[in-house]
Amino acid sequence: MTTVEHYLPGTPAWVDMVAADRNAATAFYGGLLGWDFTLTDSDPAAYAIATIGGRSVAGISGPVPEQDTGPVAWTVYIATDDADATAARVRGAEGSVLLEPADIDDSGRMFIAADPAGGVFAGWQPRELIGAQVVDEPGALTWNELYSRNAAAARDFYANVFGYRYEQIGDGETFDYTTVIVGGRGVAGIMQMDATFPAELPSYWLTYFAVDDVDKTAAHAQELGGTLTRQPGDSPYGRLAGIQDPQGGRFMVITPVTDPRG
């Protein structure tokens, strides 16, 4: 397995979701991606840490009673050495802090924010939980990308907050896609949303999980009650498909032909 012991600041390190029904969500993702789960508490709203071979890959929790958590979606957590200082930079770069920095037991310290174009993300200062301990393996996190209503503003924002630099892989006009570079390697992507995206769809981060066989995974997702948002197809980086789980959470699966991180 590709194990991780430390994430450079600015690197997507973790993903989680607040599901309307945690038990249903763990059944779906466990069946689809081969995850096992460790519960932090017996309460239905408690956090369930998904694991592969005993190593953490993602988290799923249930809703807190009487709290509006919004649509079910995967949230990307970006590593930082100082959650409070990073949250301050978010404000200084014209972003919004939606949830103030707070300790999550002994696991780490986090905040939730939105960039100026509306993309929601979290910051993660690790303690006992560094983030995903396995990446780029079947069932594990392998890529994250931001679809933005204003990619230029988003790039400026993330550069100011996390020190990102970028490499343009599109033409910058009809196809504006940049790879985020941290520590000399690609860690994420930012794409300008064009007219093919529904007008009502806001900026959003999208998570990719690696799988051995995209077509079989897509078929299995439908058997488990999910739907396809993108039919299986080939790309320069591997065969991929878009899936929506039964509660509305969207994600991608991919069988990479090259390491998307560069």
**Number of helix segments?**
4
Strand order, main sheet: write it out. 2-3-4-1-5-8-7-6
Strand content: 35-45%
CATH class type of the largest domain: Alpha Beta
Quaternary state reads single chain
Going by CATH, the architecture of the largest domain would be Roll
Question: Mean pLDDT across all residues, rounded?
Answer: 93
How would you portray this structure in words?
Strand 14 and strand 15 form a beta hairpin. The protein has two domains: 12-126, 2,3-Dihydroxybiphenyl 1,2-Dioxygenase, domain 1; 141-256, 2,3-Dihydroxybiphenyl 1,2-Dioxygenase, domain 1 (Roll), CATH 3.10.180. It has an eight-stranded mixed beta sheet, with helices on one face. The chain has an eight-stranded mixed beta sheet with strand order 10-11-12-9-13-16-15-14, covered by helices on one side. Helix 2 (83-92) packs antiparallel against helix 3. It has helices spanning 22-33, 83-92, 151-162, 214-223; strands spanning 12-18, 36-39, 48-52, 55-61, 74-79, 96-104, 108-114, 120-126, 141-148, 165-168, 177-182, 185-192, 204-210, 227-235, 238-244, 250-256. By secondary structure, it is of the alpha+beta class. Helices cover 17% and strands 41% of the residues. The two termini are 18 Å apart. The chain is built from four helices and 16 strands. The longest helix has 12 residues, at 22-33.
